[in-house]
Amino acid sequence: MTFLKIEGLEKNFQIVHLGQTIHAVQQLNFSMNQGEFIGITGKSGSGKSTILKSIYRTYLPEAGRIYFDSEKYGWIDLQKASEREIIYLRKYEIGYVSQFLNVMPRTTARELVEQSVLETGRSLLEAQKEAEEVLSHFELDRKLWDTYPNTFSGGEKLRLNIAIAAVKKPRLLLLDEPTASLDQQSKQKVKEVIQKLKESGTTLLGVFHDIEFMDELCDHIFEMSQQSFKRAGAAL
Q1: Which of 42, 78, 81, 208 supports an S-S bond with 85, CB 3.0-4.6 Å?
Q2: Please, which residues have CB within 8 angstroms of residue 60's CB and are 6 or more apart in sequence?
Q3: What does the pLDDT read at residue 177?
Q4: Bridging pattern class, strands 2-15 and 63-70
Q5: What single DSSP character describes residue 207?
Q6: How far apart are CA 236 and CA 216, in angstroms?
């Protein structure tokens, strides 16, 4: 069953002072099924992250359609959705994780996860319970729960970042180069987290530079230069 479908997507960026236009994505066509994990690969500047940001509506493309099978709204075009609808989808159905953890200062890891739960309308008691469960689930050391994330290692920050998104139980999770600059041990922890998310039924779409990492996790890989899918593990 098709869960997400992109038709004729185009996104450009204007460099006003140089009078130039960068064509980030041109006539992209893409689809995926519910429960899949698809990795996007391609050279730097090929538009991989632009696709994720367009789905999340951080970017508004010049042309094309992005259809999402929403639990609340049904088959919805994310490019035509209202701001109210996008806010709802970000709260309840679509999550986004980047390699960077940008959070409010002087806020502990536990508080950050609790705030994420509270945003969905659940009670403080539920938020406290969910925070403990998800921090344990993603194997963040208990001694770090009540400390500030600016002291965390790269891998710990990333696991917290994923926990903040995952606690909302999104139906679709977008991963924007979450393993960039991580050591092998940290990458292994991230891999375990992603496997758990997939097993729980989350549909995942990710951008990775580490092809081996993708091959071991993804169902299929989408190659930007050819705009085609390959089975994970097959030669690109």
Answers
A1: 81
A2: 54, 79
A3: 83
A4: antiparallel
A5: E
A6: 14
With a CB cutoff of 8 Å and minimum separation 6, the contacts of 96 are 52, 56, 58, 90, 165, 173, 174, 176
pLDDT at 101: 65
Alpha-carbon distance of 209 to 187, in angstroms, equals 12
Rounded CA Rg of the chain = 18
2-231 CATH fold: Rossmann fold (3.40.50)
Q: Is 122 exposed, middle or buried (0-12, 13-18, 19+ CB in 10 A)?
A: middle
Residue with tokens 């460099």: 15
Domain boundaries, the chain: 2-231
pLDDT at 236: 42
Indicate the burial class of 3 (C-beta count within 10 angstroms; 0-12, 13-18, 19 or more): middle
Q: How far is the C-alpha of 40 from the C-alpha of 99, rounded, in Å?
A: 16
